[in-house]
Amino acid sequence: MVYAVNDSNYGIPKSCPCGSQITVEISTKEADIGKKYFVCKDFKNDGLHRKKEWNEAIEDETRRLKEKVADNEGRLRSLGALEYQVDRIDKASQSNDVIIT
Ligand SMILES: [Zn+2]
User: Which domain of life does the UniProt lineage start with (predicted)?
Assistant: First the structure.
């Protein structure tokens, strides 16, 4: 359970551990006026609800998306190499040539 809470605390929160929706709140407190937060719509400061700075969440999310994009680019390159091999095998089988790898 701790792992699930920690993992879901990374990036833009999708929901609060209490089950409530996350909303965007803009602070009106003088100390951090205008600062944006992703916050549980039923937030109470008892440690059981989620409240995360908007900037931090966006940075985490961007980092995670960059990692996903890089991973998918690597997979696409692998698929391209496999596609090339399949084409070679297909052509070789059509002409009954021996494939040397
Ligand atoms: Zn909550």
Answer: Eukaryota
Report pTM: 0.70
User: What confidence score (pLDDT) does residue 3 get?
Assistant: 45
Q: Is residue 100 part of a domain?
A: no
Interval between CA 48 and ligand 1 midpoint (Å): 6
In total, how many domains does the chain have?
A: 1
The domain in which residue 80 lies consists of 2-93
3-class secondary-structure state, position 22: strand
CA of 22 to the centre of ligand 1 (A): 8
Q: How far is the CA of 21 from the centre of ligand 1 (A)?
A: 7
Phi, psi of 24 (to 5 degrees): -100, 130
pLDDT digits (tens, 9 = 90+) for 10-44: 899 999 999 999 999 999 999 999 999 999 999 99
